Fold these 3 entries.
Entry 1:
Amino acid sequence: GLILLHREHHRTITNLNSDVAQYDVKKSCSKALSVMVIPRATTDINNNLRNGLQSNPYPFISAQCNIGSVFYPTSPLIQDGTPNFDNTHEAYYYVLNEYQNFENSVPYGTFWGNVNQICSSVFYQNFKLDKDPMSGVLLNNSRSLLLDLKTHNSTERRLDTYLCHLRLLRVFRNNVVVRD
């Protein structure tokens, strides 16, 4: 049969009622490519007068994730005080670097809090599929992605997490088998 790899996105919704969000995404993280966390106001999601897809202004004062014993970024991405125009530069450039899309990026003012933007204020992380050079086996075999996010206040918000990961297709004449 023919063996193909394809990318798939897995969405996890987490409701946040405090200033700390520590949650895990259990989905093929040994083959994870990237994760995007979009903060949204829960009051806007079902409100016909507001854009339910609009992201909140960048709310994170600390952000880090890990797969197994590997942490991304190596030390938490920390903002001093309430996120605003003056102190979110590091997070902005970190997300741009991870997303690798400087040409089509949102302006800095939009990232930290301009309204009427769909997904401008996100936490984004790429992962490396490191393999053992001798055996070709993935070095990280964890099935869980842990996210550790802290916000500047305990405003109720929803975190939409999109994990992009690889899946394996085995195509035969009579059927197709999909595996993680």
Entry 2:
Amino acid sequence: TVVVDVYLYLPANLSCISVNDGVGDVKIEGVSVSGITAIHTGTGDVKVLSFSSKSLKVESGTGDVEVEDAVLSTVTVTDRVGDVELKDTVFLNGTLITSTGDIVLVDALGKCLHAYSSTGDIDVSLSEGYDLTYYLETSVGGIKVVAPPQIRVVTTAGVIYPPPVIYVSTDVGAVSVSTA
């Protein structure tokens, strides 16, 4: 078996990035992209650190996806097997989906977010309020939200509230809510 590591050093400002990787980890750090960033990986972890882009789209077969210290207009992560984490990230719209894995949001502030895990927990920790509307759903797993008291957390289906609000839903699992 031959293993090859490839290291690319990119300029700080780019118009777009496209990465297609069958097996192996992908790490992008310290880059500003004016357009779209697309990362497709079969097996391997994806880390995006100190990053800005109009759009970040990550598709992963097996592996964890971590986005930290990023500024994005749109973030879309689809992960078949693996955890998804957004930390210290600001975005307008987001969609995070994992079939088997946890979703963790730590000071990930966006206007609208849809997060779904078929089998896994969803943990959200926010230290400040924002004009956000989050939809958190898991089929089998718990949901834990730690947020400032001005953010309303709603478990009742069919009830609509103005932002800031987090809607939570789990078929099998507990919901835990506390103030930051």
Entry 3:
Amino acid sequence: AHDAALRGDFSPKDVDSGWEILFRALCHGAGLSNAPPHPDQARFLVSQGHVEAAVLLCACAARSAFARFDLDELLQWSRLSDSLTHVSTEAMLRASLTSSWVVLIQGHLPEQDLQALSKQARAEKLADVVVDIVTTRALSTLQSQGELSVALEDARRATRMAQSESLRECQYFAGWVLA
């Protein structure tokens, strides 16, 4: 459902309310809705047994908060993501990526190895996480080394990866970094 929503060929009427909340968050991230997700929605999803949807909601909302440089909101989503890391490897990877965004937005460099994180995401077949890691690496490279050409190459690569996987939200994020 998540991949279908990112491709834009997903209908919320086909699923229950938990996944509908996620769908609405994805629409917001893609600029198709003005209603941003709220952390209480993720808590509701967990209480209803929709933990996977909560993990994806946190990831989507965190990406949006990061792109808007909203540290307070990003910290809320990061805390929620961290509380779900016990659920799966996917949840742990998404929470690690969100933590990298918190560090970057605070003006520091991520302590974790983004390359190792990318390798884990590839092993889990999480294309959107891989693309976001490459995008994050572009920002980190620019911030740490000022290497514009290296950062541009990573951002271009992330954009191409998102295009080839039909991951619109990731493509918007990578395009934002490329710009």
